[in-house]
Design brief:
single chain, 285 residues, Glucose Permease (Domain IIA), 2 domains, 9-stranded antiparallel sheet, M23 family metallopeptidase, Cell_wall_metabolism_enzyme
Amino acid sequence: MNLLLNALVVSGLLSLSAFQTGQTPAGTAQKSVRVAQGEVGRWAGNCLRCSLEKRVWPAVNGTCYYPIDMEMKAGSYTISRRTTGGKLETAQLIVTEKPCRPEDFPNFPKKEYINVSPENRKRATREAAEVKPLISYQASVRPAVFDLPIGKPASPLPRGEGNFGACRTFNGQARDRHTGQDYPLTESKPVLSVANGRVRLAANQFYSGNAVYIDHGNGLISEYFHLKSFSVKPGQTVQKGQEIGRVGQTGRVTGPHLHFGVRWHGACINPGFLLIDPADLPEVK
């Protein structure tokens, strides 16, 4: 039987069938990768298209990246890639749980963010509805105008506070999880675009304060919150390293800092994983 299977593989008949169906040939160990919630996996090697469940997107410079939302259910999923030679391959993605760390802000000074008025609730709801289509998964995306690692949002960039995905409470009241990484920067320090892109939104928001959202193509959106001011406008093209605003303490904050976040194909991920050498990301093997 093994001889027959080997003969079929050599002749191309069995391998063609497997590529068409996305199945692994019998007797071949399936490739896999383990990625924690909020992190990114990769599959390198002449890739054209990538998919995770029902979501599909183009590769970035020949590599498939799989961003895992911080709240994606832990478990096993099927991922696939289409190579430049037309080959379809599948692998197992194992999403592992990463519990959120508690972060409490007792005696929070800005009381308007604790006992939110009906007017501000309506404002926040309206702003969330405006942002949602920007950060959600899109079946069709602009080509990538970035490569990994992306640039740093400030220079020099201090160590982050390690609070991405934190489960937050303000004066003991539970709120949504923290969607970015906070960096302790002094007020008025320049904030930089992490890659080439196009500004999608630059506005003052109730919770985020002065905020800028930049589209870098391939479904990657970067977010910069609590700015003292911003110097860009929607529709404007920006370059990697270009100043887009200044660090501030607007919105729901206790002091000046930069909240930096990213959404990639709709997934909320720790932006720190896009600042490192992609070779250090978990890889399909």
